[in-house]
Amino acid sequence: MTPFLQLSLALAILIAAAKIGGYLSYRLGQPSVLGELIVGILLGPSLFDILHLAYFTDTHLPEVVHEFAEVGVLLLMFLAGLELDIKDLARTGRVATLAGTLGVILPIALGAIAGLAFGMNITHALFIGLILAATSVSISAQTLMELNMLRSRVGFGLLGSAVFDDILVVLCLSIFTALTFATSPTQLSSIIVVILRMAIFLIASAGIGLLILPRASRRVNTLPVSQGLTAFTVVTILLYGWASEELGGMAAITGAFMAGLVFARSPVKERIENNIVALAYGLFVPIFFIDVGLTANIRNMAGESLWLFLALTLAAVIGKVVGSGAGGLLGGLSRREALQLGLGMMSRGEVGLIVASVGVKQGIITEAIFSAVVGVVIITTLLTPPLLRASFRGALPLTSNVPPKNKTQRESTTQGDTSE
Fold this sequence. Notes:
The chain is mainly alpha-helical. The protein is 75% helix and 0% strand. The protein is globular and about 65 Å long. The two termini are 32 Å apart.
């Protein structure tokens, strides 16, 4: 069987399994994303290891599926940004700054303490803390969209804090690397370069986006080109994601989120949303959720790795819930809102894995520690949707997957298929 046919069959199985898992999870009163994540774990090396069955002989298949998943998370964060008004997001500056800062400092401290407790030196222990400082709000954003709460104070604060968190983690990683491996002033000056890169990217992406993209999207919409607006939007998302990581030194999801914010001001926003929702939730986003589970292998959690995994998980959960929650409280949120913000920041993801991968390449952490980190990413990702949903219980009518603003094609898509 050709590699393409193997990919076709694998995608068909994964998408169908994700939708079934999401539906069952919804029927049990949980966010659909939880079911999709669990299905991914069951299909991964923890149980079936479906992509490595004898029938799938293409060794590149898992990598290709992962790349599909990467596109999925970009589209998901674009849609999250599309739901927001940049002015409303700017008003959460105090909450974002405090929650983002404390949500980085406390996990670093707790992670370092855990590392020292397991016999690591101070350098390696601090790096463990740095890994735990990273957050990924794609799962939380999806859960808040299902709850119609993405445009709440918690939703705005969560996304603002995530952007601030991303900037701080990248900056801390650059400082750590420069101080640990510096042999000349040139390497130490790289810290300034990192700061300038991030600042230039954020200013340029916002400026170009606000001045050009809304007008350009309206113009493209009038051209006699088949699905021209959809193609223009997808190209922009991919370019913003590329520029964020390659030019700004930040995670690609930050660029996709920025693209969503600027397209939210487009006069053809509703049509953009209709088109991207169908593409995202019909193909790429389900693969992203299930791919998170495919990366986990709970069989590796044994012996000392198990105890390290449990210690890091405890530090990861407390670090974000207490750290980011305290920042939200100091920023003016109520106690309940602060708890919701902290729970939303709890999930780790691709940023944490990227930082951990740097540590493996530099010889700072071992493969065993990396496996424990992957376990932390999985467990915090699994815990976030149900805990976040429970924190809103009684505060709003829990409906599944109703869009927060307009009754567009997204409404028919999500209400017609409750596994979104």
